[in-house]
Design a protein that fits this description.
Elements (H helix, E strand, L loop, with lengths): L2 H11 L14 H7 L1 H65 L8 H24 L5 H29 L4 H37 L5 H25 L5 H61 L5 H20 L5 H20 L3 H9 L6 H33 L3 H25 L3
Length: 435
């Protein structure tokens, strides 16, 4: 080989521009991320962020639902019950006051005591409700103010009516009729509106405790990412199992299952509180108010000696409504008591039409079956007992919904932290192999 050829080969061998790009910048971070350990580190970091995010979201979401249930249990539902008691007490007071007039003079002590007790319950309920209503609930506060003012007017009119009745003045019946009209056309509608607004708030709160599908989906996604990471890591490390990632997968699976089961149990309990407690409770409360109003109409019609046809018409209308409500929501003994009461009412009407007013009053005051007072009392007691049972059922469902979520916020936080630590523990040995 001649010397010229040798020099050319040496020149090509020592040409550094052919070996290194002198213009390429130094990028250690990018180079690391492109490398296998860099991709492993980023994968571990992403998994840690995902499991911690799911844990935080689950904790916040479930805590929020628990707070709503606690507010429902300790504030909203008791306020609705107070409104219902106001509604019932006012109607009972009106019915009891009208019953007292059947004596024709000095009212019986037990009847007067029942009237005073009903007025006292209504007044106490107004105070309780006023203290419990949110300052932002302007509608309810306005209703409570109107009820308090109208109740003062009603009791004044009723006091005048009772005094006139004791003195034997017929004007007492007119005052009684006016007071009853105020009660039925103004006070009770306001009380019903107050009760309905609070009952609707209870129903809305019960519907707001459904499980968060987004959080459950996030937990499932975290499990899927952990499984994919294990498959990828197994291909690079040639190890089938990574204990850290397996443990993290198990923990997140437990969290996903826990979120699903607890959410379903809580939702089922809240739904049962609504469907088996709250909804039939509305019908039972309505039925009891109609029973009280129908009794007041019956007595007013009797006191007016049959000349008040409007009271008779209202009695027929309200007993028909009661019958329809009892068909939708049967109450033990109520339908039989209603039939007996309507039969006693027919006897009152026929006796009064025959000119026997004392006989009609005797049937109306008879507290032995099949007397009108006895049948009315049976019906009122049956519906009242049903209201108490339905309220207990509603509160029990709300409590069960709360208990189903009780340990989940702390559990979700603990599981997500443990899962993040397990991911780090699983990734660390593999990264160390590259050092």
């Amino acid at each position: 080989m001649h010397s010229g050829e040798l020099e050319r080969r040496r020149a090509r061998t020592l040409d550094e521009s052919m070996l290194v790009d002198l213009d390429e910048p130094d990028r250690p971070v990018v180079d690391f991320l492109r490398s296998t350990p860099g991709r492993m580190a980023m994968t571990a970091l992403v998994l840690v962020v995902v499991v911690l995010t799911v844990g935080v979201a689950a904790t916040v979401t479930v805590s929020d639902r628990q707070q709503r249930l606690e507010t429902l249990r300790s504030h909203t539902e008791p306020l609705a019950d107070a409104a219902q008691r106001i509604y019932g007490a006012l109607s009972s007071a009106n019915t009891t006051a009208a019953t007292a007039f059947l004596s024709g003079g000095a009212e019986p002590h037990d009847v007067r005591d029942r009237y005073d007790a009903a007025i006292g319950q209504a007044s106490a309920g107004l105070v309780t409700a006023s203290n419990g209503v949110s300052p932002n609930d302007i509608e309810s506060l306005t209703l409570l103010t109107d009820l308090s003012n109208q109740l003062a007017v009603y009791t004044g009119m009723m006091a005048t009516a009772r005094t006139s009745n004791r003195d034997g003045h017929p004007i007492g019946t007119a005052y009684l009729s006016a007071a009853s009209t105020l009660m039925q056309q103004s006070i009770l509608p306001d009380a019903e509106q107050l009760y309905r607004s609070q009952a609707d708030a209870v129903t809305e709160s019960e519907r707001s405790v459904a499980p968060s599908l987004a959080v459950i989906a996030g937990a499932v996604l975290a499990v899927a990412l952990l499984v994919i990471a294990q498959v990828v890591l197994a291909r690079h490390s040639h190890r089938r199992i990574n204990l850290g990632l397996v443990l993290a997968s198990i923990l997140m699976t437990v969290l996903a299952v826990w979120l699903t089961v607890a959410g379903l149990l809580s939702t089922h309990a809240a739904d049962r509180a609504r469907t088996a407690g709250g909804q039939p409770l509305h019908e039972a409360v309505t039925a009891r108010i109609l029973v009280q109003q129908a009794r007041a109409d019956e007595i007013l019609g009797l006191l007016n000696r049959g000349s008040d046809t409007a009271s008779d018409a209202r009695f027929e209308q309200r007993t028909e409504q009661i019958g329809a409500l009892l068909e939708r929501h049967p109450v033990d003994g109520a339908q039989d008591a209603l039939s007996g009461w309507m039969g006693a009412h027919d006897k009152i009407r026929s006796t009064l039409d025959g000119g026997d007013y004392p006989g009609a009053v005797a049937i109306a005051r008879d507290d032995r079956v099949p007397g009108s007072t006895a049948q009315f009392a049976r019906l009122d007691q049956a519906v009242g007992t049903d209201i108490a049972v339905l309220r207990d059922r509603q509160r029990d469902g709300i409590t069960r919904a709360y208990v189903a979520l009780s340990a989940l916020p702390a559990g979700a936080a603990a599981i997500s932290v443990l899962a993040a630590l397990a991911v780090a523990a699983g990734a660390a040995p593999r990264l160390n192999e590259y050092h």
